[in-house]
């Protein structure tokens, strides 16, 4: 588990997040992250829980995220700024 929630992080989510292939849970909610969700996140094959809410992310949800078959819960799809393609 990677828990970086409520840490006042800003800037964009780095492409290297896709290197975290064995993590089952990523929580980077309640920060000030901006920009788009990197398509490399789709490489995190073991990911079951993803929490991105309460940031300033925008743009389309990467199509690479469709390959995350283990996902059980993802909190961020409800954002007004994000588009599902």
TrEMBL record:
Keywords: Leucine-rich repeat, Repeat
Protein name: Uncharacterized protein
One Pfam family this sequence matches: LRR_8
Origin: domain of life: Eukaryota
Entry-linked SUPFAM superfamilies: L domain-like (SSF52058)
InterPro entries to which the protein is assigned, alphabetical: Leu-rich_rpt (IPR001611), LRR_dom_sf (IPR032675), PGIP (IPR051848)
Principal localisation: other
Subcellular locations according to the entry: Cell envelope
Keyword Repeat attached: yes
